[in-house]
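Suppose a classmate hands you a notebook page containing two proteins, each written out with its sequence and a corresponding row of structure tokens. How would you begin to make sense of it? This section walks through that situation. The first entry is reproduced here exactly as it would appear on such a page.
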Amino acid sequence: MTTLVVTAVATEAAAVATGGRAVRLGPYEGLRKNGITAVPGGVGPAQAAACAGTLLALHRYDLVVSAGIGAAYGRRAAVGDLVLADRVVHADLGADSPEGFLPIDALGLGAATTWLDEALVARVAARTPVAAGPIVTVSTVTGTAERAKELVAAYDPAAEGMEGAGVLAAARAHGLPFLELRGISNLVGRRDRSAWDLPAALAALTRIPAALA
């Protein structure tokens, strides 16, 4: 099986494909090892979708994965854990209003939440310890306790990232199965960059190849 893993930055791709050989794929550079090609596509859903869509048009893959460092909503996961999405939520896609934020569902323009293949998620969860649950995609990282509470009330997420919904959109356009995995560096809430544990999050990402084997 060939797998495309799209990350935001090169350090994340290097953690996923540790020891892989460098490859040039159209306008992108990545690492390839044991059937996994890990490519840094940029930060946010738009850049991630552009990367994934381009590579899926140029090359054949059996599975598409969005992976990278993320933040956890503490009830389900802790720093250093690997979180596996059972559904992906494009949490800040919608409209502002005097009554508050209106998700895309309320606008009649689609669904914010996409449930992933239950059997595929279960197979991956059986191969390595993970915390499974919703992963929200946001273009603006949550940095206040108030916003975190809003997202918990709306979606009860396990973790937060910035690219999942974009990579998912590309995978769906090509009819391919999709997963999202996040190595946890910090808990969602008041932004405190000094409290992030990036080495622990990157170490969690190194477990992805075993989970996908």
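The notebook's second entry, a different protein, reads as follows.
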Amino acid sequence: MLDDVLEELLGRVEGCRAAFLLGLDGMIVAGSGEGGREAWELAAASYADLTRRAARVNEEAALGVPAELVVCSAAGTLALRVVRSDYAILVALGPGGSLGRARFELRKAAERLETEL
């Protein structure tokens, strides 16, 4: 079920290079991407850490729990959507990938996965 939801997300987002469910401890739980899972382990761990740090900052500033984190560069975009307090979905888009569509599909996938976790 987890892999099915992530594969659907990959197929629905133009320019999507990877889609992973990860624990906010940084471990990849499910998913796939260009270059294989191992190629994305460092990114997953780093973005999980960044999400935990952003949550602490938001808490101190009374801004609430962050739902998304998006980082754009010339080489592509990484978007992370929190599923629950301990899980998130991370997608990687190549240059020209559809960020708006990715955010929409991330929201839908997070709702589906929340019931499975």
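A careful reader of the second entry would note: The helical segments are 2-12, 41-60, 99-116.
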